[in-house]
Amino acid sequence: MTPSNPYKQYKEQSIMTMTPGELVIKLYDECIKTLNLAVYNIEEEKKLSEAEKSIKKAQRIIHYLDGILDYNYDISKNLHMLYDFFIRTLVRANIRKRSELIKEIIPMIEELRNSFQQAEKKVHMK
Length: 126
Known about the structure:
The protein has about 130 residues and is mainly α. The chain has helices spanning about 5-15, 20-45, 50-65, 75-95, 100-125. Helix 2 runs antiparallel to helix 5 (about 100-125).
């Protein structure tokens, strides 16, 4: 029997108890962090294989966010188009190893994250 890792247990428990809105914000945070790491690996470290891993992780997060959209809301169609744009941009950035393409979309993802955070705060104020 392997010893349990208290930090891992805490992390899993905190994720399991998040509201859907908190989880979306956490996913945006991870996506932003991962894209910044990709930029760093391309520009500073010249570790292109590490940058590729980061870009692909960000793509998986964006695909997940796209997959959980609820099309009962009008905004979902717009979010889908944005997510599609992000994915296409990341594919180009990954193929060409161009950090400036990644840098163009990070502020957009940050803005979405902030919007979801504000919405989450309003929901819990009621």
